[in-house]
Amino acid sequence: xxxxxxxxxxxxxxxxxxVNSTGWRDLIRQMLxxxxxxxxxxxxxxxxxEKFGELxxxxxxxxxELNATLKNITDKYxxxxxxxxxxxxxxxxxxxxDSWQTTLCLSHFLEQQPVIEIDAELNIKLxxxxxxxxxxxxxxxxEYDLQGLWFTGNGLDEEExxxxxxxxxxxxxxxxxxxxxxxxxxxxxxxSEFFNNLQDCEICGYKAIxxxxxxxxxxxxxxxxxxxxxxYGEKSxxxxxxxxxxxxxxxxxxxxxxxxxxxxKVPDHQILFSHNDxxxxxxxxx
Length: 286
Description:
Strand order of the largest sheet: 1-2-3
Oligomer: single chain
Low-confidence stretches: none
Distance between the termini: 42 Å
Radius of gyration: 25 Å
Number of strands: 13
Number of helices: 10
Mean pLDDT: 92
Number of domains: 3
């Protein structure tokens, strides 16, 4: 099979892949090349798409041996795509944006998940752009357990409410900043009780525990339950392991939330792990 024939097959089929951007273009080219040299009839087109943050390609042959080869190729590139930014092609990882899974590098993830900014004039901004001013808001509705806010008011689109989510840095700072009278009476009580009842987290060092989960590091506080004791033995071991996870930040969560000012820091917070503990943990992880 000639190189020109393979190149023609690749170029013809690139357009058959429905993906979000151009970051996977080289992966798709390589996959199509492997299909061609693996025995696929290059007169037949191939189709694929992005699904759940990975590259998916539906390709089938009635020849069992060829079909096994094709499956190995598609599995290989599906796994590679889950480590490749869909936008730029650099190293990435699976992330969630507005409940959608996508594979992005840290830079493009941060671009699509901007930090909520609140200035002294009560302007709410994203990426430096003013979204609304709290003085213009006439009503705020909330999601279950205060996990989302919808704003309506002067200057805002009457048919579209402006929405913010707990998944955005400074969301709880925004919740705290919203004047209580903009909520219903029932929600006013819930918001006040929420902030009054936050507990100190011994793992990350923020006053952010709500209903047995830290809203800053998302760990549970220690419990004397059978499962905790069986897995960790004692409280200090549990806190140490969680602190190491928080420090290593394998999912880039802390890099994203480093500008979050929603919660107060706990005075005299203690770090329980040592350099040797960190080295031993990294050996197991990497």
